[in-house]
Amino acid sequence: MPSFSTGMKVLDDLLGGGIPCGVITTIYGDADSGKTTLTMIAAAQAIKQNRSVFLCYTEDMFSEERFKQITDAAGIDFAEMRSSLFNHKTATSMGDQVKAVKGWVQEAEMFNKMGKKPGLFIIDSISRHYHDALSKVPAEHLAGTARMLIGKIVAQTEVLGQLAIEYGCPALAITWTKSGAGQRFSRQERQDMMQSGELYDLELGLGSKTYDFIGGRNLEYTSKVIIHALPFRGSERIALLEKHPYMPTERLVRLKLTAVGFEAVDGEVHELDEFWQMKIDEAEAERRRKKQGGQGKPRDQLAAS
Fold this sequence. Notes:
The protein contains 11 helices and 11 strands. The protein is globular, with a radius of gyration of 20 Å. About 45% of the residues lie in helices and about 25% in strands. It has 2 domains: about 270 residues, Rossmann fold (3-Layer(aba) Sandwich); about 30 residues. By secondary structure, the chain is of the alpha/beta class. The C terminus is likely disordered. Strand 8 and strand 9 form a beta hairpin. It has a 9-stranded mixed sheet with strand order 5-4-6-7-3-8-9-10-11, with helices on both faces. The chain has a two-stranded antiparallel ribbon with strand order 1-2.
């Protein structure tokens, strides 16, 4: 399977040469885990090869200043790139998001005819409006709303997959880890099952079956590569490979967040063994304690919360 270099040797080593082309790669994690920085680094590398980049951004505001830092470090003329190779749209609703992604079919064809072959497609994040909508829905309407929103996610992943194959390039879907909204959905489904005695498909809700992210089973199955981005210690982040068609998984690399993107901490690919799991758990517990204002919880309570 052809791959696309991230421009970082340690990441390429983790992925067997780079981000696989022709398939969807999902990157998920909590806020401040480095997901968007990873996409910016990949976008800069695509543009450096004179390939166009298509981004549908659904978060509060895309930081052009941050992207300029990364493209400057890659030796790219930001102003020229911004006007010719970077197709960026901000979606303020799920409807806008679906429209933007479906519009890529014609736009990518146009860019290709102009000699600006598409090199990367990104939705960051695919779950923002999905999550927001479910968070505001009364518990009794969660199941129906989730089914409707999952259909919109499916429509986007179908387009992403088709574009990745047609242009022989990567497609990135960014999403979040499960949250309180997902827990609400699961609780309501269990209550309904107990009251009615009927069985429901519990996987129609926010989470996938196997991985701890928002987006449902469709995103899990259509993503050939899954990377879990994790905050670690201070400015350090971890990229954990959880799914790959031919590389061993449950391996990780350490990255340091800098003004120009990421740099490798030790340049090594590590197995997720008991030592590294303990270090990740300790870092997560410390973040929770800080978030709670220094009022720590025992580890078993932290794991359950």
